[in-house]
Records
---
Amino acid sequence: LKARPCALQLQCPSPSRRGRAPPHRALLAMPLLEKEATVDTACVSTAPVFATAEPGRDGAAKAFDGGWWSLMVHNAGRQPGAASSWAVSALWGAWLAAFSLTALIPASHFGLFNAAVIFTVGLTIWFPDHGDSVLPYYSIVILPIFVFKSVAVGGIWSLSIIAYVFVVIPLIDWFVGVDVGNQTRATQKDLHTAYRFQFLLLLVAPLVLGSIFYGAWLVNFGGLSLIEQLGLSISVGIITGVVGIVAGHELCHKASWSERMLGRLLMCAGSYGHFYIEHTLGHHKDVGTDADAATSRYGETFYEFLPRVVYGEFASACRIEAARLRRKGLPWWHNEIPCYFLCSLAICVALATLTGPLAFPFFLVQSVVAILLFESVNYLEHYGLERRELKPGQYEPVQPQHSWDTPARVTNHLMFKLERHADHHAHAGKRYQCLQAYDARHHDLAGLHPAAVARRHAPAAGGAPPPPRAGRAGLPLGAHPRRRQARAGQRLPGGGRAPGEGEGRGGLAQSPVGCVLERRRAGRRGGGALA
């Protein structure tokens, strides 16, 4: 990486499983606000790091994976460095105008509205997208439009956003397909400074806060039944989780003070402000180790993961903040965590004052739904992956193979490319428009994010983990050490062994790639391919 060394550097390998290193030592070394990053600091830095590609691979598309659940593959043959022409930009502009006009269809024609939205989004299967246009990302406006139209229809239809997000959008994702396109290093640098992408993120705050305020007004003055009030609360929570917290996550990684403050505000809108501290100073440093609460273990169900991650992230944030106060010699009232909860309480009290007392349960329900939805995605992003322990207390640097990706085109537009999570963790300072899709030697989710999240909550599935896959091979990934012993000796589909059989505590088998090789050997011994 061509970047000057920072004055303060952090070695991304994190604390030992047998005990955390002194928190103040890690915090002293953590460069949260520097302007440039090194290889060792890229996983937590706010500085944009654009990795140099292998010779002849700069801007090359991601290799095709036969396991993708999609009808179309976009940008597979695009020339590296290709840019959108004025005609393509005009096409997306006309599409966005038509897409926005669907909001004018009255709620009494709810079926026509849905058909128009699905048809308009489906048209994009024929639209080129080189990743340099911000217009496709404006599709986020459909969520609040759909929510308030469904409430206007009333009755059980007020809950229809659940089916829309977890059934309709995955089907649209299948139809529109996946985007395997990447930008060259030079194009990434140009896109990083393009204000049009940053401007959209800044618009998310009024969009989310306006939806929360209008929802609070409706539950108090809209004459809604109990089921409609519940449906509205859940629906607004989905807006906060899918758009608000995701955009807040993106903003929290930026060096600009104003962006980070806006990111904190969006987190507080979902009553999850402490996530800002834990995520940037904890999760990105400890990901793929026992020290990270947000890394779901191999074989761990979502319902096992949820209480552990909610408590673990809060406890980690408290430890990090306490270490900061000790390091700077500050009194307890400088702790930021109570400020975030007070900010959430202030939003709730302001809503109740301006609209009515029903704003209290409304805000609580929408916050719970937002947290539940966001942690569902969190569960998928690092499921079963771990970093190799090089020596006691030191782990290999955070690399792309320590996160799951999915190249679904529509969902990546709705969630600001959060699904290109491998590049985000490898280079946390990159803006969403610059994130790249890594090749098949890294990890792709077998299913698309909304469908996989829905399966996590299905009672019949018991919150089951996602299908273990790695690139084209379709092989289970590295088991978390605690799960290796619990599942050792169990047979996997196709005759392979469960993680733990024949594996040591160190060496290549400890890494995700090594575990993939071990699974392949086990599959051959068992005489079948692993699911």
---
Amino acid sequence: NVDGSVPPARSQASPQEQIVLAGLFRAAVQAQKWPLAIKMMDRISVFRAPPPRGRILIDLAMAEISVWRAKNEKAFDPVTGMLLSASQQEDREITARVQAVRACERCMMAAKRIENMDLVEDAAVILWNLGLPLLCDAHRFKIHKSLQKASEILTEVQSALSKLRVMLHFEVAKCEVAQDILTKGKLELEHASHVDYTLSWDEAKKMAAQQGIAIPDEDDPSPYLRWLDSHIKRNHNMLAWKLALYDEPSDPADIAMLLIDQVQATKASAHVHSSSLLELKFNLLQKAFERLDSRLEELVASYPSLETEVPPRPLVLGSVEPIKEIPRQAPCTVEADTAKRDAAADSRPATAKEVAESQIKRLVMLLCEVSQEAHKIERFELAAQVATKAMEIAAPAETENPGVVQFKVGIEAEGGILLARAALTRALCLADAIDQFGVLPGVVETTSEEEAEGEEKVHVGFATEESDEDDGTPPPLTAEEIEQVLKLKTDLIDAVLFGARVAAQFKQGWMVCNALVHWWNIHIGITDDNLAEKVLPEY
């Protein structure tokens, strides 16, 4: 070269040697030996035309390296010459991930052309891992086509990565629904459900054992493995009602679900004033709460007397009265051996009590969503009322262990997280109600007479015009107001502790941390004003 440097020599390695070197490069990336992998990348870049398998391995490794560099290496603004700001760094990482996902998509297509199924599945796994931080409403659309292409290729090659295929179909369905392509979104959800239920009994048992999940021999493994099952069914039910032009739901849960979706989809526009929009959302949430509340009252009242066994079907018709339908059965895992189907725990008809339990769980989860939506539009009274109702229905009983919440019906992790969020939402609403009295949460309140008795005598001077003016301090509370405020403060502490306990029972450490953050932010005035000696005993 003109500057005296020696250009890199073209590689003289054979095609087979290039494949081996590309495999070593890929192994270094998998082992996360990034300095070594970067040096190997500089060496491998001189390959003139590596064979297809080698090219795919190199591109997959380079995709992961590009994301790692975007996350860990410093970069400078080309205009100012300064380090990138936090927002610029975030944009840089997002751009690198989008480009890496598209590179993995191309690798999947190339691997399919050379009929190398191992590389197809490897590229699909890397695509999913690199795109995982983008699977949110703000960025999911950027990799929509790549996710769709990956799901199509895995379906064409009949990949055994059923869990990955289910997740890809589910994310593609979200993208389609976000673009108001409801029919295609519903079809993707059906594909996800079909793939999810193609695993045989023995294969599901083996998969659970590999994941370290202990399942009794007589139990169906599907509830332990299919953690997207409830999400798929709920979204499919939502789309089914949205696409039903001439049918109206009769179930209060379905009605409330559609009302909540309408609240979430309603956005401000030039034709709708913001106050009118908030009033519209409030009316929809109020209507949803009334539907849920009335249905819950009926279920809770009839729950203790419901049958725990399914009555046998009559062999001989003794009357002309119509026979009642068999209760809905829980979904079964597809089995090769039909003899095992009779022993499955979910193959029998559901009892009336079990059906009521599932309905109560769904209604409680919808109540939690109504509470959160009401808090977003700053209707704190409604949000606190709905959250209180959900907490009373889900866990009305007191236990001997104060650190454990006793639920009335069995609740899964998803319902537990929603219930913990509802409890924290109630705490925020109570904090706002306490703030209306001009006092701090967590502090003992005293009457004006008690304060006067505790104060030291001071010299009284003559009044001036400035002293006659209102200094902005709130008037002293009456005895009735103090009693009301202390009740609100105690309920606030109980709500935060309830949310933390529920989160701890479901081993959701991040939610426990959120409860601690709420506790600190709500009671931060105690530390700011040095009021540690005046806190409530419950605090």
